[in-house]
TrEMBL record:
It comes from Ixodes ricinus (Common tick). Residues 476-488 have a biased composition (Acidic residues). GO terms for cellular component: RQC complex. Pfam families: Tcf25. Residues 468-488 are annotated as: Disordered. It comes from the Eukaryota. This is Putative transcription factor 25.
Length: 488
């Protein structure tokens, strides 16, 4: 069914692609037909016949998740990953990070989506370190394009797994080329990681013992670095503070809530694209900021930021100019795809007009514009339904009535003329020219079939009349009076 082939090798990086056999392509076409019916029973029927069809497993996992059957949804994703893993090329080693897949090929998207969904299920089970490793694997499949925006959740799982040093090192290595500071999640997660490292170092120097203190004791980090970076992030993204505190259940004091910099105006001035990033960060990361020591650290730096704003710090005007310049236009498709798959209610996705009315399926949400199609879906034959007046009349009276197929398609103006010696009849139009079929032969209709069609039509009419039951006449008052007089 599915196989993985090596496309090319560039240095130490190997580029692979999944391929579907002819038999698997036929199953894929059946799956597409089943999905377009919007009936989950059709997908179940297909899985009963082909239990290892990957896209059916992914799509039905979403159905189970909407039905709150999370265990079955997770098992279906694990089964899909097993099917894909059994097809890996011998050179495709997930531990080395040298394998690449092109998301533009539809055959490769199943692995991206299955990994994305699986790491969320693993994270919900209380295994953040495992989820972090799967997130690294997902990002390593296509780090240049990042089609599912694993960058927007990599910092979250790193913080949950206490991998603070890894997060700080990743930020410093990728910031020159990827500008991670422009993403609200990295802008706030990195100073939080620095604060946790500084606190662990302080606890270790104070004689505290424990896995958390010993793990980060050797990292020389000052809390001033965390303070400075958090203040810069608050100045760059002032619209984060109020929704973050609301989500944490914290009521800001009057000085903060009434100040114009952190008030409602800060959120109203954000572009739609930036608002989506902020909402995504708040909805996913708010649990990491509810710790009392973290909230006290945040409050202290918020007051410092207000003082810098009142003094007219030039960074405030510079950050405002950057926000107006950078976060304009429509949301990139990979970010929209990430928001759809994350299913975070705080992040409201606004799709462009060309995608708003199109159906979105879980097995391939928002496919890339530059698709690389290896095989195409054959055109489906559409049966022409009978829309004649006679059929519409009988169907309005008897919904189960269907005009026989032999009658459908015979024009009212056609005349039947003698055909060959076998007693066949052929059509002739009003102009006298013989009707032509696909290959130029005359369109022939058997006389016996026509008679049977007329007979079927008459029988349907007879059944219709027999099924009509008129209500019995109710006795009127005059009849009842006459009967009473007769009895007297």
């Amino acid at each position: 069914g599915i196989s993985m082939e090596l496309v090319e090798t560039r240095g130490e990086v190997h580029h692979f692609t999944f391929e579907h056999s002819k038999a698997y392509q036929a199953i894929q076409f059946q799956f597409l037909d089943a999905v377009e019916t919007f009936n989950p029973d059709n997908i179940v029927a297909l899985l009963n016949i082909h239990p290892l069809h990957v896209d059916s497993l992914i799509q039905f996992s979403d159905v189970c998740k909407m039905g709150e059957d999370l265990q079955m949804a997770a098992e279906l994703i694990e089964r899909a990953l097993y099917c894909l893993e059994s097809c890996f090329h011998p050179l495709f080693n997930v531990t080395q990070g040298t394998g690449r897949l092109d998301y533009r090929r539809p055959e490769n998207r199943s692995l991206f989506l299955a990994l994305f969904k699986h790491l969320h299920f693993v994270g919900q089970r209380g295994c953040p370190r495992t989820a972090l490793e799967f997130c690294k694997l997902l990002l390593g499949l296509d780090p240049e394009n990042d089609p599912l925006c694993a960058t927007l959740m990599l910092d979250y799982f790193a913080l949950r797994a206490d991998q603070y040093q890894y997060l700080v090192r990743l930020y410093h290595e990728w910031e020159p080329s990827r500008n991670l500071s422009q993403l609200p999640n990295f802008a706030f997660s990195v100073p939080l990681a620095l604060f946790q490292l500084a606190r662990a170092q302080r606890d270790h120097q104070g004689g505290a013992t424990g896995a958390h203190a010993d793990r980060h004791a050797g990292t020389p980090v000052s809390e001033e670095d965390a303070d400075r970076m958090l203040q810069d992030s608050l100045i760059m993204f002032p619209g984060v503070l109020t929704p973050l505190l609301d989500k944490c259940g914290i009521q800001p004091d009057a000085e903060v809530s009434k100040h114009h910099f952190f008030g409602l105006a800060a959120q109203a001035q954000q572009s739609p694209a930036l608002s989506q990033l902020v909402s995504l960060f708040v909805g996913r990361h708010f649990g990491l900021w509810k710790e009392p020591e973290v909230l006290a650290w945040l409050e202290r730096n918020v007051r410092v930021v207000l003082q810098r704003v009142d003094r007219g710090d030039p960074l405030v005007a510079d950050s405002e100019a950057k926000r107006k310049r950078r976060y304009q236009g429509a949301t990139p498709r990979n970010i929209s795809r990430h928001i759809l798959l994350s299913n975070i209610k705080e992040a409201n996705l606004t799709l462009p007009q060309d995608l708003a009315n199109a159906p979105i399926f879980g097995f391939d949400p928002l496919p890339p514009v530059d698709n690389i199609v290896s095989y195409t879906r054959p055109p489906r034959t559409v049966q022409v339904t009978d829309q004649s007046m006679v059929s519409a009349f009988f169907r309005s009276l008897l919904p189960s009535f269907n005009l026989p197929r032999e009658v459908v398609g015979i024009a009212v103006d056609d005349r039947l003329v003698p055909g060959n010696d076998d007693g066949d009849l052929q059509h002739e139009d009003v102009g006298g020219a013989a009707g032509a079929a696909n290959d130029g032969a005359p369109h022939v209709v058997d006389a016996g079939d026509l008679r049977r069609s007329v007979t079927s039509l008459l029988e349907a009419m007879r059944d219709l009349l027999n099924n009509i039951h008129l209500p019995s006449d109710a006795p009127n008052d005059g009849d009842m009076d006459s009967d009473d007089e007769h009895e007297d």
